[in-house]
Design brief:
The complex is a heterodimer.
Chain A (H helix, E strand, L loop, with lengths): L1 H7 L5 H21 L2 E3 L6 E3 L3 H7 L2 H33 L7 H9 L6 H12 L5 H8 L16 H25 L4 H9 L4 H12 L1 H17 L2 H6 L11 H11 L3 H31 L1
Antiparallel strand pairs in A: 1-2
Chain B lengths: L19 H4 L4 H34 L4 H6 L11 H42 L5 H9 L10 H10 L7 H23 L4 H9 L4 H12 L1 H17 L2 H5 L9 H12 L3 H21 L1 H12 L3
Helix pairs in contact in B: 4-7, 4-10, 4-12, 4-13, 7-10, 10-14, 12-13
The chains are: A mainly alpha, B mainly alpha.
Chain lengths: ~290, ~300
């Protein structure tokens, strides 16, 4: 009876444990194994090739470009989705904007609700070299020389793609910041304005230090998402022209499903896995040091 | 995770410090801060325009003929082509809509029920390795779906899920379980123990306690978790393009790709299709704003 009561409750855990094991952990493990093989989706045979996929990856220029594009994604996303979005959240929480801020919060959040396909299609119209609104606006204000085939030029394609992600995701991180800013005790601000501190001083001396934790969380989420981004570049440019706007996830997809090099794609996935793990390890380290101090 | 979510809409009632700089009519500080507020207001309006204009443009142009989108995409339509919406709906969007609805609803119901069961089991389990078990169940949070697409693709072929609704529902459930278990478990921990002891004495078995006490008491968090799952499944893109081949089974994010290719240059209809596809989540957000925000916030604070 006692044992039945003690272990009987495990029965409730079984469905979740089973699904997680079969569809999350087992594929993850298989992926590591597959990265040492060469195989195609059509033929059943798999050939063991040792480290050769990884050796090839080291000298693969397209893989390097993809990785660097992920890094560009990270740098720009951190600026817009962490720094700028935090400033916007702080502005919206200022008492001066109290009347408009509920409305603006919702407005800024709308892009978050759209599927990546919708957003990509809308901006494809805007980026159109001839009829697109961006080039037409530039022409209208006399900046003809700035006109670009935004998605068609290997100089601008990746930035045009990254820009869309910022447009879509800033409202999300701003929301996370707003919710956290509302927990900062109000008397901190009262005391400092009695001492004559300006809004900017308050921002740097109260708002930022009080928000360390949420800034770290949003930073980690943003970086992790930038390492795994797929939809935007896939739909807008397919990684092109050439590989100029390719990221690791689109390069993985390209190898797996267009070139049918499943083993090589698995080795790219292993790299993505370790990159995201490294980010999480950094998070763990920082939040632990934070606890100690 | 101690965010005060209830304050998000009620900041009118929260007294804020009246800064002295604001009312100093003759001071330099006052002038500076007024200029500062003008500049920030300008910035907020500019950002609002950047956000809203593309959406406004899409709606306006979804009511034009293709010809007019080319010649005058900035202006209002000369003739309002509401027929674009009918054509988009009949030309495939209705089927993507239905597929998204089926996949999302099934994924949400299964995810929530399996997670709640699991959270309940974790709560009751007092044996060895309880912590390890918890870590195992929520460890999936650290695995991004991109990493496993190759083996998953193969697994979908082997299980014959490929190109059926199950090819989406099962992976969606699997990848949403960890965060949902975490959310529901945190809530279950706050339910007083004496409640189920009383029910136990009344002759309820543990399954009945789960269904008649835990589930009803946890409605709020179940809705929050459900909204979060629905948001994810409605917009998921990677699995949707890899695991489904048949046009008749595609969900909105992947279906719109096929829809565009089939239309070639019928832009008005395409834009109408985009507007239709965007509407459900925006409407849902308007009605379930609080659950959405709570879900988004707790969903981001991984681990």
């Amino acid at each position: 009876m006692n044992i039945a009561r003690k272990y009987g409750s495990l029965i409730y855990v079984v469905p979740a444990a089973l699904i997680t094991t079969v569809f999350v952990y087992y594929p993850l493990l298989l992926n590591f194994i597959y990265s040492f093989y060469e195989f195609s989706a059509i033929s059943p045979g798999k050939v063991f090739v040792g480290w050769s996929n990884f050796k090839e990856l080291l000298h693969d220029e397209a893989a390097l470009i993809s990785l660097l594009n992920n890094v560009k994604y990270i740098l720009i996303s951190v600026f817009f989705q962490v720094i700028l979005s935090f400033i916007i959240a702080a502005i919206l929480e200022d008492r001066f904007f109290r009347k408009v801020s509920p409305f603006l919060r919702v407005l800024y959040f709308v892009p978050v609700l759209l599927s990546v396909t919708i957003v990509a299609f809308i901006f494809q119209f805007f980026y159109d070299p001839v009829n697109g609104l961006i080039n037409q606006s530039l022409a209208a204000v006399g900046l003809d020389s700035w006109r670009q085939p935004w998605l068609g030029s290997s100089d601008t394609a990746i930035y045009a793609v990254i820009a869309i992600s910022q447009w879509q995701s800033m409202g999300y991180t701003a929301l996370l910041f707003i919710v956290s800013l509302q927990t900062i005790p109000k008397d901190l601000y009262e005391a400092s304005s009695l001492e004559g501190a300006s809004k900017v001083q308050q921002f740097f001396h109260i708002t930022v230090p009080q928000s360390k934790e949420i800034i770290l969380v949003v930073l980690i989420v943003t970086v992790a998402q930038s390492f795994t981004v797929f939809g935007e570049p896939y739909i807008l440019t397919g990684g092109g022209p050439g590989y100029s706007s390719s990221v690791l996830a689109t390069y993985l997809y390209e190898n797996a499903f267009n070139q049918d090099r499943m083993g090589y794609a698995s080795s790219i996935a292993v790299v993505v896995f370790f990159l995201t793990m490294a980010v999480l390890a950094v998070q763990l380290k920082i939040s632990k040091t934070g606890e100690r101090s | 995770m101690n965010f005060q979510l209830d304050t998000i809409k009620s900041d009118k009632n929260v007294p804020r410090p009246d800064s002295h700089v604001d009312d100093g009519r003759f001071s330099l500080n006052g002038l500076l801060s007024r200029a500062g507020y003008t500049a920030t207001s300008f910035f907020l309006v500019l950002y609002a325009i950047v956000v809203i204009y593309p959406l406004f443009w899409t709606i306006i142009n979804s009511l034009k003929s293709t010809q007019e989108i080319y010649t005058s995409s900035w202006s209002l339509p000369t003739t309002w082509e509401f027929g674009n919406y009918v054509e988009a709906w009949n030309g495939g969007v209705s089927s993507y809509f239905l597929n998204s609805f089926i996949v999302s609803t099934s994924s949400v119901l299964i995810t929530i029920y399996v997670s709640a069961l699991c959270a309940y089991g974790l709560l009751k389990y007092r044996g060895k390795g309880a912590n390890a078990l918890l870590l195992f169940l929520i460890g999936g949070l650290l695995v991004s779906p991109e990493v496993s697409v190759v083996p998953l693709y193969e697994l979908m072929q082997v299980t014959r899920f490929h190109d059926t609704y199950l090819a989406l529902i099962v992976p969606y459930v699997a990848y949403r379980l960890p965060i949902t278990i975490l959310l529901i478990r945190a809530y279950f921990l706050t339910i007083p123990k004496d409640l189920d002891e009383a029910a136990y004495i009344d002759g309820y078995n543990s399954m009945q306690i789960f269904h008649k006490i835990y589930l009803p008491l946890s409605k709020t968090i179940l809705i929050t978790a459900g909204v979060l799952t629905a948001y994810y499944t409605w917009n998921e893109f990677l699995f949707a393009i890899i695991f489904i081949d048949s046009d008749s089974l595609k969900t909105i994010p992947s279906g719109l790709m096929a829809f565009r290719d089939a239309l070639q240059t019928n832009w008005g209809v395409l834009l109408a299709g985009l507007v239709i596809s965007a509407t459900p989540l925006i409407v849902a957000f308007m009605f379930l704003q609080r659950s959405f925000i709570r879900g988004m916030v707790s969903g981001s604070v991984k681990g």
